[in-house]
Records
---
Amino acid sequence: MISRRRFLQIGTVLALGSFGAAERSLGEAQALPSIRTATLVVPGLPGAWDGLVIAQVSDVHAGPYMGRDRLRRVRDLALSLPADLVVFTGDQMDRRPGDAETFVAGFAGIEAPLGVYGVLGNHDHFIDPAISEAALTEAGVRPLVNESVTFVRDGEPLHLVGLEDLTASPGRGPDFSAIGRAGAGFRICLCHQPGGWRRARAAGADLTLAGHTHGGQIALPSRRVNVARLHSPYIAGPYRRGGAVLYVSRGIGVGAVPLRLGSPPEIDLLVLRRAAVGRRAVA
């Protein structure tokens, strides 16, 4: 099986068969993210947390194609949103040690009423997990590495659990038992790769937030071309299994090639609602 990186490069060549397509894809890659709003109806959400708003920022890939000025504009866009909580779901940095400094310079000052939290992705490990964690902390993002934080509203707990990346080196892998250790109550899990959802929901996660796929980055539905399908059935948006929900963000940055086509960058504004008669599971 060819690598995801190589598949993306080949897919780009096949998909961009004209100058016009190449021009559009470059424009999408360089655009500021749109705001994608989704209402997620999740069974078990306590009444005290009905209406919680989460801003999800994923796959920033601070580096050559995502410089400081553009990052600052993304940060300001995130700060303008009516979010109670901001979460980063991995790949904040691209792959060079200097990318950590770029991320800090761009996102320093990010804040939210309930705080800002994040997990590492595979690209954050390409640098060094310690450097990537330090960059998050310096920017004002609390890293959650197989640990949780608990919020209480009107006596109702809500747990936010962050998992290490699935591809972390031995001794640093994801500890899904951290979900159960968070305690009784509603549990939101941050897991960079959607491939971890099965184990996360088995461990008790009610809602899992992921990224990693870039929505395919090169996605042409009319031709059934989507690079993300090489590795995951979960491409973008909401998915449901029983009472558990997964939400996958298309993210902001780019990976192997600085192009996006049919999968524009986004910040996700997620509104959590209690299950109720007549209310759709995912809107």
---
Amino acid sequence: MDERALRRLARDADEQHREAMQTLHNDLAQAHFGSSDEVSRRERRKFLARAAAGGAVMFGATAVPLSTLLAFNPPAAAQTTHSESPSQEDIALAQFAQSLELAAVAAYRAIDESRILSAAVGETARLFRRHHQEHADALGKILTTAGAEPATQPNAALVTLVRTNLQNARDENEVLKVAYELEEGAASTYLLAIGRFESATIAEAGATILPVESQHAVVWGQVLDLPEGDYTPAFVDARVAFDPATYPVS
């Protein structure tokens, strides 16, 4: 892929990220964790409307409704009672997600420090690192608002895995394969998580972040010239999600 095409893809991903973060910040400004059933019902309706109807993930030039991605587990999405009093399970899963975001920041820093990236690829890697940092910050704000402790350290097991894979990478393509697999795992983890969250506010945050990290995987998939089927909706698969049992929060 030539540098002009990559920079165009990166700009598109950044625009999607900025729009998503604006929406998320607006929602967080209005979020109030409590026990009000009416608040819970209202937030649940808003989340489901966005996730099932309004949300879309960009795969190349194709917009795929988020409801298509949620279809892997419709019973959980349909039957879970969302509330604005996050359970301990919600909090633990949000902390886990934040630790993954911090690990992605560390991973992209290591990728950048490999010094074997071309100019446009390096710029894109640094851009995606900023996206992950902002996602981590947003999750930290949600946890703090809920009266919980945010994750403060990158997920150690994931950082170790990425560093090991980078040590074995011999060229730019092998480095980017590490980045692609990181984004693939992150997007799949959010897909799994949003079907499990009970809090509508936390679930909505996951549904807002998911399309951005899916788009990261799409960008790297195109740079690597992977078969299109590798970075179309089929890649977002709970089977490749990061398991908290394997990657415990530090």
---
Amino acid sequence: MDRNSLKTNSINLSEESELNWTKVQSSFEKSFGSEVYTSWLKNISLQNEYNHYVVLGVPTRFFRDWITSRYADKILTEIQKYKISINRIEFKIIEKDKAEDQTLSLSSAKSKITEMKESILNYNRLNQKLSFDNFVVGRSNKISYLSAKKICSQLSLYNPLFIYGGVGLGKTHLMNAIGLELSSNNNVMFISAERFMYQFIKSIKKNEMVSFKDFFRKANVFIIDDIQFIRGKEGLQEEFFHTFNSLFEKSSQIIISSDRPPNKLDRVQDRIKSRLSGGLVVDIGQPDYDLKLNILKKKIEEFQQSFQEYPNLSDEVIEYIAKDTRSNIRELIGVFNRIVAFSKMNNRKLNINDCKIILKDAYNSTKVISIDKIQNVTSNFFSINLEEMLSQRRSRPLARPRQIAMYLAKKLTTRSLPEIGRKFANRDHTTVIHAVKTIDRLSKNNAEMKKNIEEIRSLILSE
């Protein structure tokens, strides 16, 4: 028998052997890091192994949803290192012994609430610098500002108050200002949706759900930031829904922020979207020139108060920054800080040409591409209906454009494979993997395919 035959036989023998889950777990820890491994992947167990897929056990539905949305494709990649024939993974919820779920005794509840309180305090502190006094008001945020002020003078007038807008436009500042205004006479709870989720998971692990519920439902002003973070997390949504209802029933003021309006929160339960829409929904838009100019003037005042000197910037430079910065307020302040730092380090007043050189990366930032845009451009390019392209039909005139759209979604966005799959009519992430590999191969061997992909890419980036 020749060397190649021996090599082939050894591979086949390797493929026939059972998957060594201990080795896979060690690989997880090395690839994902000890923190992610300890919090999530350590809890995964191998339940069943079949010819081409494995069934993995997880402790709760929430664990399953979280792992699937963030790590499923990477987990499959790690497993394939040990058994290449595995091309799919499934998750099964393994329920714990019911007796274990009832270990929280009434005698220990009080001490566990105290422990919860101490844990929350680490990130429940209000920022004293983010007050109404230094919130600069303009046309894009005036309604949100007036609504926030009204809440402070008349609790439960608008309940909930839902503030939405893009990243870095001042939502958190406004909510923090509400918290500061009301904190002297009210029990204010200010937390991000991500931290709410963290405490939820921690409470499940430690069997402290009683103390979790008690702690969050005793606030009479409940402020939660970035509610879009609960998308797709069924267990967390269930708990948030009941927390919301409990607070609402006792007339606690609820203030919520998001990057989109309630009706645009995909993969969020309809009953939650209905509750969020039931009060006052206001938006914060992109800042105009006047607002940006006023913000920069406010930053100059703060700089003078802090350093007892005027920043070495001319009026034309300040106007240039306000006019040419097309990003959000947070990035506008970052640009201002960068200009001031360069001016101080070089000990001279900068001109507009200096600013253009310093800020060339800020003003030429890469566009953010959405999967929706990729789908629309691709379907228009091939003159097919978008619904047909996303349908389950497998005919070549629909399947190939669909695969190209999946391929471009992987190349032009930072979305994970499971997220891309969900955007394509809830397809499995393995379908996306197949599409990416297929188009990648065809674009190398087919000149027309390569040309089509480049044209579609240009259309997406140019719009």
